[in-house]
Amino acid sequence: MIADATLERVQTDTDSDRLQTIAEAHTRIANRLDDLLAFSRRGITVQDTKSIDLQTVANCRWERLQTGDATLSVESTTQLHAEPHLFGLLVDRLFQSLLNY
């Protein structure tokens, strides 16, 4: 919501095709989050979680993608508990949504 609000403010001051591209990326991310929420509402639980380092997972998944000139900077040292394979797929889809504009 913060990113969308900031984008709207910038769009009122600037006319650029790149801003439309950003808006479309925001829509794709929101759709992915909606899919994730729908999945969680089905009552499906994951039993086999492990401690995962967000920075390590993000960097490993980023390196597997064709990103062109895009770069990734992870400024978090967050540890979370998740099923490694499913979380990796989630990160892949998020990155693909950002890159496929």
Overview of this structure, please?
The chain is mainly α and 101 residues long. Helices cover 62% and strands 8% of the residues. It has a two-stranded antiparallel ribbon with strand order 1-2. The model has no long low-confidence stretch (mean pLDDT 83).
Strands, helices and their partners?
Elements: H1 2-13, H2 17-41, E1 50-53, H3 54-63, E2 79-82, H4 84-99
Antiparallel strand pairs: 1-2
Key descriptive features of the protein:
single chain, 101 residues, mainly alpha, two-stranded antiparallel ribbon, 4 helices, 2 strands, 8% strand, globular
For the residues shown, what is the average pLDDT? 83
Rg, nearest Å: 16 Å
What is the makeup of the main sheet?
2 strands, antiparallel
Q: Distance between the terminal alpha carbons, to the nearest Å? A: 20 Å
Helix tally equals 4
Short characterization:
By secondary structure, the chain is mainly alpha-helical.
